Amino acid sequence: MRRGRVCYPESQMTVEERLYKLEGIVEGVMAVLPDRVSALEARMDLLRQEVKAEMASLRQEVRAEIAGLRQGMEEKFNGLRQEVKAEIAGLRQEVKAEISGLRQEVEERFNGLRQEVRAEISGLCQEMDGLRQEMKAEINTAFNKAMLYFTGIAVVLGILTLLR
Predict the structure, then answer these.
(1) What is the DSSP letter of 11?
(2) Which end of the chain is more exposed for a tag (fewer CB within 10 A), N or C?
(3) What are phi and psi of 113, to 5 degrees?
(4) Residue 13, Cβ density class (10 Å: 0-12 exposed, 13-18 middle, ≥19 buried)
(5) CA end-to-end span of the chain, whole Å?
(6) pTM reported for the whole predicted model
(7) What pLDDT sits at residue 1?
């Protein structure tokens, strides 16, 4: 049998051999651990830098996307504003034309009514003149009849006075 490290199944190893084996494992781990920790720290630093770079890149992309969307929205808004202004201008023209048409129609109707009223007044004036003429004629006729009656009465009174 050889002395030194012998690979026995752990159940056949003594406590001392187990401790010796564990010490070797711990020493091996302790020897490798600082390098691995340094490697992990370096790798973490690299990952941090990559994440920061990726975040900065994403931030720039998001800003560019937002700026593009903002510009697109402003262009659409300005386009809509122009359409609304044009629509309002068109409506104003229509309203002005309609108002002018209504004004002209009202003036024509008013002038027509004015002519009708003037014609009616003129007809009434002519009718009044005719009635006035008739009244004058009636009054003259009545006056003439009264004069004839008075003349007849005067003649009768004159005759009665002579006869008495």
Answers:
(1) G
(2) N
(3) -65, -40
(4) middle
(5) 214
(6) 0.41
(7) 39
